[in-house]
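Researcher: I'd like a structural prediction for the single chain below. Treat it as a standalone chain; there are no partners to consider.
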Amino acid sequence: MVFGLMFQILRGLLWTEVFSQMKLWEFLQVNVEKAVEQFRKVLQAGNKPEGPELMGKPKLKVIQDSQYGRLSNTVDMQLALEIFGRHTNGPKSIQESCDWFKKSLEELNVECYKEMHSHHEKAINCIVGTVCYERLATHGPLLGPVTRTNPLVTRYFTYPFEDMPMEQENQLMLNPNEACHLLAHNGWVMGDDPLRNFAEAGSNVYLRRELVCWGDSVKLRYGDKPEDCPYLWAHMKKYTEITAKHFSGVRLDNCHSTPLHVAEAMLAAARVVRPNLYVIAELFTGSEQLDNLFVNRLGITSLVREAMSAGNSHEEGRLVYRFGGEPVGSFVQPNLRPLVPSIAHAMFLDITHDNECPIQVRSAYDALPSSAIVSMACCASGSTRGYDELVPHQISVVKEERLYPKWNPDALQSSVGEVNLQTGIMAGKLALNKLHQELAEKGFTQVYVDQLDEDTVAVTRHCPSTHQSVVTVSRTAFKNPETHQYKEHLAPMYIPGKIEEVILEARTIERNAESYTKDETCINGLPNYTVVIREHVQLKDSEIVKQGDATTKGRSEFVEEILFEKLTPGSVITFRVSLDPNSQKMVGYLRTQLSQFNRLYKSGSLTDSNVPGILKVALEFLISKLTLAELNVLLFRCDAEEQEDGGGCYNIPSWMPLKYGGLQGFVSVLSELRPKNDLGHPFCDNLRQGDWMINYVSTRLMNKGGALREVGKWFSAIFTYLKHIPRYLVPSYFDGIIVGAYATAVDEIFNQMSSFVQNGSTLVKQLALGSVQMCGVGHVPALPPLSPELEDVPVRLNNVTKQEEQCCVSLAAGLPHFSTGIFRCWGRDTFIALRGLMLLTGRYLEARNIILAFAGTMRHGLIPNLLGQGVAARYNCRDAVWWWLQCIQDYCSIVPNGTDIITCPVSRMYPTDDSEAQPLGTVDHDQPLYVVIQEAMQRHIQGIVFRERNAGPQIDRNMRDEGFNVEAKVNPETGFVYGGNRFNCGTWMDKMGESDKAHNRGVPATPRDGSAVEIVGLSKSAVRWLMMMNESGNYPYSSVTIHRDGAEQSISYKEWNQLIQENFERLFYVSDDPADPNEQHPDLVHKKCIYKDSYGSSSAWCDYQLRPNFTIAMVVAPELFTVQRAWKALEMVEKKLLGPLGVKTLDPDDLVYCGVYDNALDNDNYNCAKGFNYHQGPEWLWPVGYFLRAKLYFAKKMGQEKYNESVYLVKNVLSRLYTHLERSPWKGLPELTNENGQYCPFSCETQAWSIATVLEALYDL
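Model: Treating it as a single chain, here is the predicted structure.
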């Protein structure tokens, strides 16, 4: 109450005797009379407002006087004229305007007064707060009475003049020759933006007394660059260079008080002198993000962290965990790893010179245990002189003038000016520093902090190669044991492993000595406390602990019990711990095996004299025996594929199932956990709790048989070691095994692939893994059997029939939705993806088999859309057959002797359109492939018209009756393939409406009937290729024949090719010329200088929609396009359709555009309900490959400059795809994204054609 009254009086005095006398508000105000007279003269001179009357209520603003004189500010007279000078037709009106102006100025001055008053209130609060801390607070310096040495208010400025009255000071400030010697002190502002200069214009820190100032330094005005103050920059640069010359490291005290750009320049100069300069910085930003900004900009080696900032032992232990190293059992990090956010390296101090005295805040007994906790951190550590001597007050770096005591090993206890190992905690600190150095030198990089009770902290340092540990138990004494009651009995501690020795045990004790008296000449500490220490003793000889029982937890946990008998507050004990002998052997054997993957495991490895035979064989050799189809099983297979074999992906009950049953499922999770050392993740918990995951890996492979069984045996054998090591080490070593095996398998995959992959970039290799991911053999082969006349067809023994069966690799459309059963293989998807995933990767034989298997299912001259193993095929797409022909063409051009495929036998499942599926495996219905190709061409030129078998809801519950009518023909006037109707969708944009609420059920969103642009391009490519094949003697047919109205007419491939060439641009190009005679519907043109999406659609406006499909035609038949027109069209695609990962499927300016695909949403929105907008905006990935390829092709035609720009664009797009691929747990590229690259939960997570076309773009690049 007395203090409250005192502070109230102080506040009153500050206001009445200081601030009100200073009248600082006058520096902000305007001289009203002077300004009014100036305004009157303006009006009398006949000046008028220039513009119309200002809107709203404009307000005058004070213009600050550049010399900051009292009542010297002005306002904008032109603005005043606009506001007050509109009606001045005589002396009376001029006077009225001046009166209004005067009133406004007076209001403005009142606002200035209020502003300054608020600054004064803040200043008074800050002064009172400082006085309270400095004079009264028990944790403050307790300065005592106000004296000239310790004034009531800290001086913010320094000057070389005698003290003088306030009036005289005011006069001095007006004299420039004297005012220039007034220098502002430097300091820091609590809670301020560390990137802001608190002394710059606009800052009121000094005015509001918010600065915690340093009386021994002044604020330097560097400016923004050396030219702003050449002398200061040069002087400080020289000082910095001298410092760097003579010292190995520097400390940036209150680093944030130096402008960042200045610190950058000075440190750059210092590093020229000493490149490996050690930079320690002290920051008070209050934000680790801001800390990292300083660290990264300045190249700070270590940031000062303070144990004294902890309010209790729990927080002190947390600081060790936060700054003191990686956790025990951490993953082994590869040399090349992803950048992850990390905290700055710490210089961890038990106390800094700024901290309050620990003896005053805590107790003398806490110095040793807190120092031990700091010493156990795996980072730089340090202290401040006086801590070890137990100096019971803060040592001021500004005002302290006494000397530190000298070192004298023979000094007497009573000697004030000398210290030795019996002084304070010096003996304990010496032992702790030696231990800290030893742990660093011997690689004890891992840390574990265990809070045993509210006062006791155990810190473990662990060596990841030898698995030795050092455990220090510290009983802190934040409260004085002489006045606070601590527990008498502590719970036992259980230490995993075998305790080799007690490295040190130390206790803080009180001894007989004179009470402390502050010496006048020497900085002395408390004489009545010292440390009793014993080093390198056996556990049985310890005076602090007693050995309990050794126990075993499970088959791999050997634990020693420790009973604390005399771990009094202020005590420390440190144990050296090894693994128990059996665990040591198992870890050594395991490291021997892992050294085949990583030489880091050589350290600590042991040879097992009874090593299992399978482990004598290198895993690389075992994996080299696997085919790519078997590597698909080893690495991949999603849950549906695993279930088809009677299993499933591994499921972590407290988390989720893995994405794959193979190694990729585990690697995807580990690659997320490893960089962050996320050992608390449910995945790691599962590994520590039991062997279920370990057994899953080996058992799954051993059940497969063949070469996979041998790999499974290898896993089973190496896991035997893993199961017998301490559980806390299992996640790290499991990671080593899985990642080593995975890398070996991946290397083998590349060994079996083409030189394009082997010599390719990381992105090429990552995408090539998609070939293995998508291509496999299921429980039931997805492809129909090939001709028995065909050579090199893979076979296997059927587990049920015990008969041999063909087991050709099939290509899944996407995972996880299109991976098994009849929905695995789709004609269109297969042949869009086949070139990239199989031909470019060198999987020629498997590509041949897929081409021939689909050839065998041809019916009506078409390739199935949904293969359904041939027997459940649907022939409802017009484009699959043309993609199939494109792949045969690609096969012939890429594969050595590729044209041999033309004569390969094809087993026809349907010899005629109406025949039932024929049993395969005989040669009864074999035909050479060229006959099947000719049939496809012949049937199209003749015209394909049929109704799907079993038409109705049994094959499509959404389609209307008319949609089951299939039609595909060739226009004799243009050569264009056309077909379809408005009730079906025969191209890849095949979404059928499903919503009754929105009334779109049975209506295709994108029928694309007529001549779809990509089909025209693909057919042109096929016709041109067959013409050339015939001319080179590799294809026996030169023409196709039309039977119509009893007459036969023949058209050569050359004529057909020419017909398409002559008509394509005439009918597909959308000109920017409104008078273009070829434009039949100028009223429907929306985007100009593009190519139509279709020609002759039943809804003519659909032809003119901007979509990415013409880029496909540009790649397969570039000869159809003139270069300049193609380039403009590609620029339009880039501008309007290109997204972060994929390409928009519809112009965003289109009325029906909707970029978010939600197949579950059922409402009355016709355009979006039940995913109706599947191809009306969402950004699909596979067309982006064709856009990039087209861009590269035509850029070359446009010249080197355009080509260089295009390469830059392509690499940008590829880099975004690479980033997605790296981060995806599926290790693939999705089917589609929502608008602007947003994740779409209804998309396949990894899609075959998405990966394939990007790989093709890389091949072209």
